[in-house]
Structures are given as structure tokens and as C-alpha cells.
Design a protein that fits this description.
The complex is a heterodimer of chains A (536) and B (403). Helix content of chain A is 53%, strand content 2%. Chain A has 536 residues and is mainly α. In chain A, strand 3 and strand 4 form a beta hairpin. Chain B has a single domain, classed as Alkaline Phosphatase, subunit A (3-Layer(aba) Sandwich). In chain B, helix 7 packs across helix 8 and helix 9 packs parallel to helix 10. The chains are: A mainly alpha (536), B alpha/beta (403). At the A-B interface, helix 21 of A face strand 7, helix 7 and helix 8 of B.
Amino acid sequence: MSLIPGLLFLVGSLLTVQPVIDSPPTDQPATVDSADSPKGMGIADARHLLDRTCFGVPHQTLENYASLTRDQAVDQLISTLKTEAQTPLPEWTGLTVQEIRDLRLEDRQAFGKTQRGWQQEARSWWAQEILTTSSPLTERLVLMWHGHFTSEMRTVRSPHAMLAQNRLFRKNGSDNFAELLRAVSMDSAMAIYLNTQQSKKGKPNENFARELFELFSLGEGHYTERDVKEAARAFTGYRVQGSLGQVRKVSRLHDSSVKTILGKRGRLDGMDVVNLVLKHPACGEWIARRFWLEFVSPTPDQEVIKMWGKVLRRSDWDLNAFLSHVFKSDQFWAAEYRGALVKSPVDLVMGSLRRLDITEIPGLQINRNLQAMGQVLFDPPNVAGWPGGTAWIDSTSLLERRKFLQDAVPTAMIFSTWQKREGSASVGKSGMNPEKTPDMDPEMDPEMSPDMKPEMNPAGNRMAKRLNRRQIRRYRPVAAQSVEQLYQQFIGGKSMNEEAWTLSWLPFQPVTDADQSDTGFGRLQELILDPTYQLK
Amino acid sequence: MEFDRRTFLHLSGGACLPWLVPGVEAWAFDDPQQKQLKVAPGLRERTLILVELQGGNDGLNTVIPLRDERYQELRPRIGLKKNQIIELDSKQGMHSSLKPLTEAWEAEEANWILGLGYPDPNRSHFRSIEIWETGSDSDEELQEGWLTRMLKAQPDPERAAEGIIIGGGDAGPLYGTGLRVINMDDPEKFSRQARAVPEVARGTDARKALEHLLDVQDDIKKAAGIIEEKIQASPDHGVRFPGTRFGQRCKIAAEMVTSGVPCPVIKISIGGFDTHNNQLNRHSRLLTELADGLAALRKALIATGKWDRTLISTYSEFGRRARENGSEGTDHGTAAPHLLLGGNIKGGFSGRQPDLGKLVRDDLIHTTDYRRLYATIEQNWFGLKGRSEVSRGAKPLDVIRKS
């Protein structure tokens, strides 16, 4: 399929006046022209900041940020942080634990099937939140903590527990690390995943204690095998309670005898262990290291990480202040680290769609695309999380990534264009109820089974349909024409020249001949298919 | 000849030069200029197909001791009955679901290596498969797969790739840098997608991420070019493969070997062996799928004259607990038997079955270090004599007819 039709949507996002939620407040200079202004950091820096800290932003927002200084931009970005998701949760999250238990007892097999359906919907729900959130930085942090304090839904099984954990990351993930670590240690999904749930006095399970030290807070070399064994005893007797949120210490199952952990002796319990970990000097550095790997480069600079560790501990684990410190650091902006990170599948998929202002794509494609590239939301490969970096790219995943950029992106753009032009009139501004959308051909839509109940429809009924061939044909020439206008406007206008256009997409100059096409849309296609677009 | 970039790195990299690796002399060269182009003939002519049984296969219900009543005592509910076992010799039988493999057994082209494992066994899926795939000791962490260590000293620009992974999964024993490893589901789809990947002139950019990405692009284009060409001239083996997922993976593996795609290692996998509960039916279904696929693969390779040049070997992270658990299943265990198949294999058993009377916390004690399997593949199958990269002093097993 030709890419050409799709870019229309980009035009739409620029020509139609739409509220851009995360654009700077009106007292900031925020015009297209100011990309060149000596005060603003410019389009290349804006792309760098937003590709790394967000999952892409619409073009207009990118230009708004370009007009700010780096410090202004970071402050602006951090002010968008949120503690709650905006996408409505699937209906079944309202079921009580008793109701779920009854469902299971009624028919085990049927329940298994239902639960697998819920798991899919939980993934779609989060994907939708990442795609449409007004604070992509919040979701970036939620995903980072999910890859750090791992739990796998295929092991935990309960989507309720996984969503509760997801909520925890959103609530505590940008606020205070000490609180976050305490909450995670008492989290239900974690207790199920790392077997605290089975650990009891006389039969301690070491799983959580070991990972708490090794992966979650200190790193290897800062604790002994004996610490693990003793900490395992401290974590005996914690059980998941009805709410599926936090665990509770059950005295008769808890080993309350004296233990020695990280040099401290006493009748220590789980929370005491967490507090000891927080006092350990290695903890700050371990967390600083995680931020470095997430936001700066794959090769830690020990000196800087040491300093960052101190910053974290001195601020009493204030993550908000720490984020600001990291994003304003010289290392974050250093030329040598530009393009040093490989975009994760979520980066690539969500970043491309968000950049093009696509808020819905047909069916459950997003999660299928992510899976093909090796990242399934709620299911990291193992307790160590996604390895990231160059491990994202092998021959299969690279071809899948290219296929997505070549085929799925334009398809989504056509759909989005259609929806903005025609769908929105009858569907409502957010397209919340595609079932009632006119001009749809159910025969053309293999995603939509007739017996699908609305309440089973994932992600708040946002499952979009496919366009039929007639609609696609109709939009093709319109799109091509609009794209051309858009591109000419960019190039001809004073705000952006050819190079700025390139650097609003890529971390550095393309390695292929990305200026062969003589249409604006062709050039965009060349840019996103250039290998450097895979980097950030 | 196209000069491969990595070969150049090997040549210029010093440490990777074959003639600087002590002991790699059996096939050494007289003319230093020619060295990089001479590869152990075994690596050119022979193929290893690895079959990973993901989740930890229950070895004790795969090869069953016939004359040991402790077997039924340990497994009152999931122990196999007489009619569920195919007798192989006076002492051992195999699960009746492996029936499609009896032809290979009778032709003396199948060898069961009994009691494979390692000291101080780890029971985590994640860690234990890492041990198996890197060839490390239990308390040691190696950064490269065992085949990576073996193959990276043997660069060969004529190859399509060092390894082809079919049907997903990670590179496993081929993990690490310096090898070209291709993942694919379907060769035609792979070639089609590869054609769209651009040629990039390589500069001097030192950015690691970009370097890696361009390396992978090069690997894809090169492998796809060779695979496409070979498959067009592929001989018809006339075998219908089972429609199961594993059967279809075997079909692609067969296509690679029969068409002569130059690649020393192919890896396929079959999942679902983590049978903690209600194991009997599930395990039986899995072994049927496994045996049906392998039997079809054998037929196709015999039909095209490649069977003598192919070695199939199973592996898995661990066997399962000798004593059954409370939910008619088995928990993570230790040692297990593994199967070698091929036209050049000496049929029968190697090693011995672990003693059911000597269990450690209901687990079997291994009788054969798993690296004897690797030493066999390295030295007797591929003919890489001299200093071994993978054996750790373990001796090859006498299971290959003609080294």
C-alpha cells in the first residue's frame, strides 16, 4: 500500500485548530516562528527532550516546546505529571473479589477464558492511555517502573492485581521513591509474582527478598546470601487481602524471631527491611543508574551516577526534583549521547502515532504490533524486565518495525483522517462509540465479531473499525494533495528549513538518501524508514 | 567474493584470528593469507538442528526405567503403565506418544543420552536455561552462548548466517556478539521484507546503537539473498508436515537444510513442558507433537540425501522432580535424558539412568555432564579438534559414526 494518503492527517492537525493539552501556557512564547528565535532551544533539542521523556508529541506541541529554553521546557514538561489515568477502566475492574471468586467457582474453564479476555483488555486499556494521555511523561515513568519492579501478568494471572500495581506506579512513580518502594513491597501482584504469598514462618520463600536486593534496590555485591535468607524470614506471612491492592501481615504466619539484616539486628519484619534498604548507600546509586539507562545512554558514567545518587538521597527521595535534575543535566543534553538509545517498541509505535496525532487505530493492532516487536505490556520477559538497548533489534524485530512504519502508520493515518473529517461529526469528539458510526461496512471488518458485547470491548469502547476500500480510495488523492501543501509550507516558510524538518524527526542526519522523493509525503516516508529513526 | 564486514573485523581484531587461538590446529593452514577462508569442513558440510523443549521436560516420563519398582512408588498417579510405554531394551522404554520415532530407533539412528545435567543444579527456568545455553557451571555467569564461543572463531563469509532461529524465541546458545543470527517465521516473508531494507554505505560512526542496527540490516540482506536463491532451486522432498506449530517449524527447518542454505546451526523450539499439574494428557500431547514433527523432518532429509549430514539434538532447562506433586504434575527438577537423531548417529543409549534409590530431596542426581553433549557436537560432529571452547574438560560421547 502506498504511504501517500496518510499524511493528510498531519495536515489536519496543523491546519485545524485543536486544543493541544500539553502545550505551554499562553504566557510563554509559543509560535511557529520562535523555533528560530535565539531564546528558544530549537526543534532538534525539543525533539530530543520529547522523544526521550515522552512517547512523542504532535507536531504543533513540538514546535511550542522548541520556542522555550531547555530549563523552561523541562519545567513545563514536569508540570504535566499526573497521578491518575484519564482512560476509563474496563467495566470488570468494578467486580469485587467475592464476585470474581464466585465466577471462578461457577465454571473454572469459562473463568479462565474470561480472565484471558480481561488480560487483553487490560493491555488495550494501558495502550490507549499511553496513546492519548495528556502527560506522556507520566506513562513513560509508569512503564519504566513496570520494567524495574517487574511482575508478569501471565504468572500473576489476575488483571485486577496488575491494574492495581499499574495504578500504584502512576500514583507514586513521580513523587517519592521511598514511598514507591514501600508500596511495591506490599503490592499484591508483586506478592503473587515473587511468591511472598506462599512464604510462611518455618517455610520462607526467598524469591522476593533476593530480587528486592538484587534488582529493585541495591544491585549485586551490596548484600550477602545471609541477608537474603534472613530478609526472606522477615517477609513471611504477608497475604493478599480482599481489595487486591496491598498485602497485610498475618501474625500467625509471620516469623517474628530475631534476624540480622544488612548489619541490623532485631525482630525485623518486611517494612523494616525496606527501611534498611533505603538507608543503604547503594540504593540511591542503583536508582540513579536506572534513570541514566532510561534517559541518557546505555553506558553508565559512574562518577555522575554517584552524584545523582547523592542528589536523590539528600532530597529525601523526591523523584519530581530528581527528574528535573536529570533532565537539566549536561549529560542529558550531551551531543555524544544523542541517538545513543534504541527506541523500544512502545517508543516506536506510540511515538509515531502520537507524533502524527493519531489517537485511534483499527482494532487491537497496537498490542499486536508491540508483541511482534518483542514488548508486551504487563508481560516483561522475566523478573529482570526488558533488557532494552540493542537487544530490541534483531532480524525479526527490525523487519517488524519497518513493516509497522511502512504499512501500519499510513493505514492509521488514513483512518484518523477519515475520522477527523467525517467520523467525528456523528461519533463525538473522542470517538467513544464507534458502534454507531455510519458509513461503516461490518463485512469489511474481521476484527469485529457480531456477538461481541459492548462491555467486553476493550479500553473504554475505543475499539475502532476498519475503513472499506471505497473510503480508502476516496481519501487517497485528497491526502496526497494536502501533504504536498503542508510540506511546501514548512520548507517555504521562514520557520523551518529542510534541515530543521529532518531534525524534527531524527536524532541526527539520516544515513540513507532521505531526499530522493520530490513530494513532501515521500520525504516523510524516507525519514521514518531511515535507520536513525529507530534511535532516540 | 563479497567480503563480509565482520570477517574483516575478525581479521583485524587480533583476538578472533583463528590462528591465534591456541589449539585450533587440526585443520590449520599453510598459507596465512588463506586462513580466514578455510573453515573446518564439518562446519561447511554438516548441520546441527537444536530442539529446545521449553519449560523443562519430564525426563522420567520420557525414557522410563522398566525394572525399577521405585518408579511407580514415586509416581503413583502419573507413572506410566505398561501399555503407555514402548520397550526399547530390557531396561528402558520410551513414552508411547513417541511412537513416530520408533522407525528411527529401529534403523539405529536415534541415541538417548541418559541423566544429562550439571552439579549443584539450579531450578529456576531463567537461570537454568542460561546455564544450559552458555555451557557454564552452576555458579558461573558467562556472557555468550556455547555455540557463539565455538563459531566465532570460525568465520565463514560464504554462510547465509551462523544460526537461523525458526518460529521465535531468543538466540539462546547463539547469544552474544560476533555472530550473524537470523530469526524468521517464514522464508518467503523474510525474503520479501528483506528486499525493502535499504543498502547503507558504512561510515565511521562509532555510535554503538546505530552500528548494531546497521549490522542487523546487513545480516538480513545477506541471509535473505542466499536463502532466496537456494530455495528457488530447492528439491522436492514430498513429505507432508504436521499442521501443528512445531510441525510447521520442522517444515521450515527441512526447507533450509534440503535446499542447502549454508548455515551450521538451526534452532527450533516447542513450548509447554512446565507441567506442574494434570501432566499426563498434556505431556502426551506435547511428545506426540514433538515426535510427529521430528519424524517428518527425518523423512524429508532422507528423501533429499541430507540425513547423514544432519544432527538433531533436544535440550531443555531441566528435568522434573522424580516424585510427583500433589496436583498430578511434577515440579522443577534436575537431570533428564536427551535425544540425538541423524543418519550418522550410533543408535542406542549413552550414559546411564540416574539411580531412583539415590535421590537428593526427591531429585535425580545427574550421571552425565551436559557438556559432554556439547563436546560431542563440537569435536565429533563439526570436527573442531584441538582446544575446546565448550567442553570444560568433558569428553565427547561415542555416538557419531563418522567424525
